Amino acid sequence: MKCRACLIFAVIVVSVLLCSSCVVLSLEPWFNSDVQVFEERLLGKWGDTGEFWKFKRGPRNTYVVTLHEDDGYIRYRAILGNIEGAYYLDGVTQKVMPADEKAPEWMYVAHFLVRLEFERDKIRLTVLNMDRLEEMIEAGYLSGAEGEDEELVIVSSTETLQSFIAEHGQDADLWDEEDWIPRM
Asked: What is the pLDDT along the chain (184 residues), one digit of tens a residue?
C-alpha cells in the first residue's frame, strides 16, 4: 500500500510539473536503444523567461533535460528515439527542487513519453491523451494499472511499448494538443 501511495503521488507531481498536462508513466522504457538517436538541434533553451526547458548533452548520447520554473526546477535524464520517422523522448526524473518538495522514489524509476516535433526555431513536446490511451488499453494494445485516484501506469514490456509507438504513435488523437515552444 505504501508503494501504491508513492506511485499515485509521483503521477500527480509529474503531472503538475510538466505544464499541468496529464502524464502517463511506464514501469519500463518506452523503446529500446536500437531506435535511439541524438539531435544536436535540440540542445539549448526553449521557452520564455518564466518557464523554460534546457537540453544538454548527457552521457552515451542521452540528454539532461531541465524544466525551469519561477519557484524551482525538475531535471530528467532523457533518451531520444526515432520510430517510423517521428521523434519521442523517454524520460526519467533525476532531481526536483526546491528540496522540500522531494519527489517519491517511484518518480525516479518510472518512464514518461513525450512526442517531440521540430519546426525551425520551435519545438513541441506533446503528452499522451489519457482518454485515448485508456481506450487503447481496453482494446488490449497495452497493459495498464490504475491507482486509487484513477492515475494510469503502463506495465507493458519495452518491446510491446515500442511496437505500440510504431503502430499508433502518429495517430493525432493519441496526443494532447500543445503549443509550440520557441528557442530562447
From this structure: 443 333 333 333 344 334 334 578 898 999 999 999 999 999 999 998 889 999 999 999 999 999 999 888 999 999 999 999 999 999 998 888 886 666 666 666 789 999 999 999 999 999 999 899 989 999 999 998 865 456 678 999 999 999 999 999 999 999 999 999 999 9
Angle value at C-alpha 58, between 68 and 40, nearest 5 degrees: 85
Is 3:106 a contact under the CB 8 Å cutoff? yes
Beta bridge pairs of residue 152? 146
HSE (CB half, 13 Å, CA atoms) of 101? 14
- The residue assigned the cell 514518461 is 112
SS3 category, 48: coil
d(CA 175, CA 51) in angstroms, rounded, equals 22
